[in-house]
Amino acid sequence: MLDVRRLRLLRELAHHGTIAAVAEALAFSPSAVSQQLSVLEREAGVPLLERTGRRVALTPAGLNLVRHAEAVLERLEQASAELAHARRGLAGPLRIGTYPSAARAIVPAALAGLAARHPGLEPMVTEVDPAAVAAALRAGELDVALVHEYDLVPAEPEPGLALTQPVFTEPMYLAAAAAGTVAEHRGSPWIMAPAGTLCHAMTLRACQSAGFTPRVRHHVDDFTTVLALVAVGQGVALVPHLGTVPAPPPGVVLTRLPMYRRTRTAFRAGAAAHPAVAAFTAALHSAVPAELGGGVPQV
């Protein structure tokens, strides 16, 4: 009988590519991961891995087993959801991931609504960049998370994860000392999020679409700080609606752009029907401001 925990390790190896990366993602030692994968190979009775230097490639049998592992793990999530429905009332921890601007502008109201309807739940919020959400959900560090995507940076499918339809959609703005277009600021210094984030990729692609590569002066991941730097002439930036709430500082002019950021909730495949996940998603819809389409779930 194949062990589910070892199948999870194989699934993570397919995503991360190295035993060291799997060990870091799941808080194991590399030797423990290696040993468990060796046991899985013995259980399977066929080679699952091909080692090439520091990287490990999966054999065709290994890749096929990962496909089955995804299905098994999804069914286990469905079973967990059914068991949760059988209990009386929602209780226990619910680990929520969110990006910073939603943590400030949307999540507190969602948690208040969740507490009013399900006082036994214990929401636990962690700020995490959407680029890191998939690994955190698969590792069991989060149960549900807010993720966003931009017109120029669409969401990539993630095996083992599921997404809702957009909960809300925000317009994007150019923040500068005066109104203008992205193309008109090809010579300006730019303020961008750190490399590796979706916000960084969005700004870079927007500038490239306008025909230039931005000259980056500051790397800042907090939109309040970004607007403060724009206000004192340190550069220009692209900012979503939530990043401008409650209002930009004096000296900042926002020019609306034909670009949008969409926010969805993400969770492990099979967990859509889990009552705690569904309750948080419903509370999130109710907390969205009316100008962003709040109050009624979008389908």
TrEMBL record:
The lineage of its organism: Bacteria, Bacillati, Actinomycetota, Actinomycetes, Kitasatosporales. Belongs to the LysR transcriptional regulatory family. This is LysR family transcriptional regulator. InterPro entries: ArsR-like_HTH, LysR_HTH_N, LysR_subst-bd, WH-like_DNA-bd_sf, WH_DNA-bd_sf. Residues 2-59 form the HTH lysR-type domain. PROSITE patterns: HTH_LYSR. Keywords: DNA-binding, Transcription, Transcription regulation.
